[in-house]
């Protein structure tokens, strides 16, 4: 049994230590928002937060995050910055198929947490690891700028 | 006339009701649907559009619409959602004619059942253009029934009652009854005859053609709650991966499962039989590892030891094959269009220009890899899958399992992208085969990204050769074009070495420029892998070759490419595609859907104007133009590119002008063209699948690269052109792709003087300044 601190709760999971978090979260803990896209950390569909920092769950073994807080898109609505990002995504009608968008939103939220006012170059740098095959990148940028503006306003 | 049963009312319909099948609406089925009598009557007449598709169109409101006593309107969506917004767009059409409040509209996904729902193949950019009118009639029928129910309840003349935003209002008195209050009574009324329906005038539209309609699945997507294929979960479910033959036609010679069975969680290893070539939509076969979770299934598969018999395609090698295609393109081939006297015109020409182009295989690689869940019990098989073609899937599962068709149920989840790949049911058939081995248990087959890239139904590979004979004014009097590419039809029968009419009709035969002497040829090419449909299909090579070549001709003539394009289009005219030897015309009537050169001109001028065509740009930057007609829609693109000193590209702006006829959901139309632009850039700059010894050489996104944010245009502007006069709907999902690659490469030429004739661009621009100097 491995204890996983996931979305604010302790989960006892009967898995091997080498199991990537992605599969532990999906198959065993039963949270479906985190998606499988490549299995090699190349596409970002599986992006989660580990102690607030973005990570690719498909290449992070569960044994490597003992005691750390893992959170997924399923729980992002409880995060104030996450909410702003989700609303910006809806306002810009970003999603097409939507499959990658959970990972995109997790990457964007992590960016805005460390850099609430990113430049276009910083947005690109933070998001270049997240592939969207539908090609929604321009709207992703728009949504991040909107969320950033909103967060700046909230702070002022 | 059939009557609705009293249980027209649906209570507590779950958005995820499809996970239990659609039993909840089963009671609404009544014998006759409006589509069927026509289907039988019209046998002698050639049918077009949705009527010509398998199982045609159905516009019976009893099948598609229900209203609960709380006023919730549920619309059944018969097409698959893969990002094009069809669940929203089809439903808003019903809601508009029904005058429903969008906030009270829900969508339920139809399982595969074309007898009931009409054609469900979500491909060919056809959903809105075929289903707009039937869905309008569904909404208008229910509106009429609600008005009638209110009139009967109030005992007032029908003409005094008017449905308005989820209520029926008695206009003289101002009394109102909500749709929920009228649902039971309306459900007991006869469905009005089609010719009695009053459809809204466009000025009355509430949602159709309007901005700001909230997407049905939007909130679920941003909260991670949307249900895609792999999100269907059953307790005790089994998880499988499959080691498939890496060479098309290969099969298992022998295998050793002992190490795999030692992996914790692995339950069983079993072989899936390979079928003889061509494989059609059947699975490729191989060795399946069934486990208690996905990770165990992946590790178990890695531990397999398999000896393969690679079969007849083991020498498929892209480097050699390219040489074969290019050699074939230099030789005469099957003539598919011949206008005027080409050879004479060519020898009489003032000058000639020839060019050869090459485009490699591509893989659709939707972000959601193939995945399907199936459960087999007591002679019944039920599956859940992100499928573009649930009826075809149902047929193939029934066939493979030896079950009656009615014993198979295919439930459609959201698709994490499709792009043509998920029209093929091979992955669902795999799940069904495995489920049969574990009666009563759900089995999920999960493809990895490597599986997806190795075993796609690949976009074709092609060599294109063009030669023009030019007048003194620089315009062509003679046009020879040869296209050589393995055909999708090779999936279905041996010896299919020519492109089919539907492939040639994608921008090759229906080339509409005003050129007096034209010969189009299609030399043979044999397929050595599974060739399939990839967003916009054969329009990709044909559009790239023609639009690149026209740019070359303009430069040779020393003329502005936009002005040259306009001259080449000739006078505005409507062309019957049959006169261009295109009998296919995307399945649409040539009378209803002629090729309209004024609309080609319209999109060219719109895109050029928006882009500031002709303006002076800094060194290393260029504007490129392309126009292409596909899926009965007209699209032009102008791309502004910067080529850095090291050959890398920055796409500063893309202006896309689109004339797709009437626009149902403009916001989703723009999003499709924005996305198609990005995908088109990925195809052009990065995309290549290549084979060696019959095997795909790319494994994952580090080798098969697709567009990332860095390649997306800094600005992408989609300009929707409103056509003159009444024209029918055009396609939206695919036609945005073809003009992108040529517009980009024409822009690269403008920036650097280097002509790209072979895709992908990738490293071809390294050192471009030295070459120029």
TrEMBL record, chain A:
Can the keyword Cytoplasm be found in this entry's annotation?
A: no
Q: What is its EC number?
A: 1.3.99.16
Q: What keywords were assigned to this record?
A: 2Fe-2S, Iron, Iron-sulfur, Metal-binding, Oxidoreductase
Which CDD domains does this entry report, sorted A to Z? Answer: fer2 (cd00207)
Origin organism of this chain? Pseudomonas veronii 1YdBTEX2
Q: Name one GO molecular function term.
A: metal ion binding
Keyword Metal-binding on this protein? yes
Q: What is this enzyme's class at the first EC digit?
A: oxidoreductase
Q: Which domain of life is it from?
A: Bacteria
Describe the location of the 2Fe-2S ferredoxin-type domain by residue ranges: 1-76
The record's gene field reads iorA
One Pfam family from the record: Fer2
Question: InterPro entries from the xrefs?
Answer: 2Fe-2S-bd (IPR002888), 2Fe-2S-bd_dom_sf (IPR036884), 2Fe-2S_ferredoxin-like_sf (IPR036010), 2Fe-2S_ferredoxin-type (IPR001041), 2Fe2S_fd_BS (IPR006058), Beta-grasp_dom_sf (IPR012675), Diverse_Oxidoreductases (IPR051452)
Q: What is this protein called?
A: Isoquinoline 1-oxidoreductase subunit alpha
């Amino acid at each position: 049994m491995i204890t996983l601190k996931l979305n604010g709760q302790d989960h006892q999971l009967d898995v091997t230590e080498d199991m990537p978090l992605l599969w532990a979260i999906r198959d065993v803990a039963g949270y479906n928002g985190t998606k499988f896209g490549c299995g090699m950390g190349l596409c970002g569909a599986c992006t989660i937060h580990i102690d607030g920092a973005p990570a690719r769950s498909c290449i992070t073994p569960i044994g490597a995050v003992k005691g750390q807080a893992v959170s997924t898109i399923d729980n992002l609505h409880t995060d104030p910055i996450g909410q702003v990002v989700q609303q910006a995504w809806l306002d810009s009608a970003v999603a097409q198929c939507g499959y990658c968008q959970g990972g995109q939103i997790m990457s964007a939220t992590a960016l805005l947490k460390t850099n609430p006012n990113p430049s276009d170059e910083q947005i690109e740098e933070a998001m270049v690891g997240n592939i969207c095959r539908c090609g929604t990148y321009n709207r992703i940028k728009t949504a991040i700028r909107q969320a950033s503006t909103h967060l700046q306003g909230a702070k002022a | 006339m059939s009557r609705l049963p009293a249980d027209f009312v649906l209570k507590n319909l779950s958005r995820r009701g499809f996970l239990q099948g659609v039993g909840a609406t089963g009671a609404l089925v009544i014998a006759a649907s409006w589509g069927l009598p026509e289907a039988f009557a019209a046998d002698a007449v050639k049918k077009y559009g949705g009527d010509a598709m398998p199982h045609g169109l159905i516009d019976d409101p009893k099948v598609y619409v229900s209203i609960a006593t709380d006023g919730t309107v549920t619309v059944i969506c018969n097409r698959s959602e893969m990002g094009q917004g069809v669940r929203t767009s089809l439903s808003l059409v019903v809601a508009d004619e029904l005058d429903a409040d969008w906030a009270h509209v829900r969508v339920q996904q139809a399982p595969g059942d074309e007898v009931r729902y009409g054609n469900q193949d979500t491909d060919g950019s056809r959903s809105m253009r075929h289903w707009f009118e039937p869905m309008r009639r569904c909404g208008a029928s229910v509106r009429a029934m609600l008005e009638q129910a209110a009139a009967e309840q109030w005992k007032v003349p029908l003409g005094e009652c008017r449905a308005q935003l989820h209520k029926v209002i008695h206009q003289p008195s101002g009394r109102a009854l909500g749709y929920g209050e009228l649902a039971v009574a309306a459900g007991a009324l006869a469905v009005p005859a089609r010719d009695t329906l009053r459809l809204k005038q466009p000025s009355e539209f509430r949602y159709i053609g309007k901005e700001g309609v909230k997407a049905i699945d939007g909130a679920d997507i941003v909260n991670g709650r949307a249900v895609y294929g792999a999100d269907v979960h059953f307790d005790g479910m089994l998880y499988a991966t499959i080691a498939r033959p890496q060479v098309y036609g290969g099969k298992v010679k022998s295998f050793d499962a002992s190490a795999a069975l030692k992996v914790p969680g692995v339950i069983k290893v079993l072989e899936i039989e390979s079928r003889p070539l061509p494989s059609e939509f059947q699975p490729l076969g191989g060795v399946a590892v069934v486990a208690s979770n996905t990770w165990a299934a992946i590790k178990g598969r890695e531990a397999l030891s398999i000896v393969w018999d690679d079969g007849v395609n083991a020498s498929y090698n892209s480097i050699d094959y390219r040489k074969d295609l290019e050699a074939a393109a230099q030789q005469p081939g099957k003539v598919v269009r011949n206008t005027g006297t080409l050879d004479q015109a060519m020898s009489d020409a003032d000058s000639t220009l020839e060019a050869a182009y090459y485009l490699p295989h591509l893989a659709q690689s939707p972000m959601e890899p193939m995945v399907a869940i199936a459960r087999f019990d007591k002679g019944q098989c039920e599956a859940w899958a992100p499928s573009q073609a649930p009826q075809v899937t149902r047929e193939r599962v029934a066939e493979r399992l030896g079950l009656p068709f009615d014993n198979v149920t295919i439930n459609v989840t959201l698709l994490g992208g499709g792009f043509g790949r998920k029209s093929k049911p091979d992955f669902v058939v795999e799940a069904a085969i495995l489920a049969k081995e574990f009666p009563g248990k759900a089995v999920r087959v999960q493809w990895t990204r490597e599986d997806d890239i190795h075993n796609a139904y690949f976009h074709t590979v092609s060599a294109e050769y063009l030669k023009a004979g030019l007048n003194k004014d620089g315009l062509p009097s003679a046009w020879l074009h040869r296209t050589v590419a393995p055909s999708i039809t090779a999936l279905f029968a041996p010896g299919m070495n020519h492109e089919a009419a539907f492939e040639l009709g994608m921008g090759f035969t229906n080339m509409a420029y005003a050129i007096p002497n034209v010969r189009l040829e299609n030399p043979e090419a044999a397929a050595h892998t599974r060739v399939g449909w990839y967003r916009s299909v054969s329009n990709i090579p044909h559009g790239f070759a023609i639009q690149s070549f026209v740019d070359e001709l303009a430069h040779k003539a020393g003329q502005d490419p936009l002005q040259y394009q306009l001259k080449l289009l000739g006078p505005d005219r409507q062309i019957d595609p049959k006169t261009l030897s295109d009998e296919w015309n995307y399945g649409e009537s040539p009378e209803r859907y002629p090729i309209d050169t004024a609309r080609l001109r319209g999109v060219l001028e719109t895109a050029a104007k928006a882009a500031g065509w002709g303006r002076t740009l800094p060194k290393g930057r260029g504007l490129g133009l392309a126009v292409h007609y596909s899926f009965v829609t007209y699209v032009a693109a102008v791309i502004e590119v910067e080529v850095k000193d090291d050959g890398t590209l920055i796409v500063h702006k893309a202006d896309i002008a689109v004339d797709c006829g009437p626009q149902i959901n403009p916001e989703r139309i723009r999003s499709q063209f924005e996305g198609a632009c990005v995908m088109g850039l990925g195809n052009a700059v990065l995309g290549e699948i290549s084979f060696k010894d019959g095997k795909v050489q790319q494994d994952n996104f580090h080798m098969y690269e697709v567009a990332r944010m860095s390649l997306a245009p800094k600005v992408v502007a989609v300009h929707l052109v409103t056509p003159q006069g009444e024209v029918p709907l055009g396609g939206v999902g695919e036609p945005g792709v073809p003009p992108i690659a040529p517009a980009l490469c024409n822009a690269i030429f403008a920036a650097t003087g280097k002509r790209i004739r072979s895709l992908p661009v990738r490293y071809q621009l390294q050192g471009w300044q030295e070459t120029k100097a």
